[in-house]
Amino acid sequence: MFDHVTIRVADRDASRRFWEALAPSARLHVGAERPGRVLFRREGGGGGSLSIVQAAPGEPVTSGAQIAFGVEDGAAATMLDPDGNAIELVSHPR
Questions:
Q1: Are 80 and 65 in contact, with CB atoms under 8 Å apart?
Q2: Taking phi first (over 0 means left), then psi (-120 to 50 degrees means alpha), and beta for anything else, what does residue 22 get?
Q3: What 8-state DSSP symbol labels residue 3?
Q4: Which of 18, 19, 54, 73 has the fewest CB atoms within 10 Å around its CB?
Q5: Whole-prediction pTM value?
């Protein structure tokens, strides 16, 4: 399993709102925040972390990535974040 993922975003505030709205379904919570960066961790301490970082002027943003979160409640969804990354909630039968 991965330890952490960092994505550069065009608008940190818009991205934070997106991820905070998704957080309960993906079992994420804000773990730390610094100027220009927000770190989300998985509930219960299992799994890695996701950082969203404000891209510096002229620096490319992360776009076109696919990030999937396993969920246990049978939910499934695919959406795009504000920068065009595909975010998925997936549930696999056990």
A1: no
A2: alpha
A3: S
A4: 73
A5: 0.87
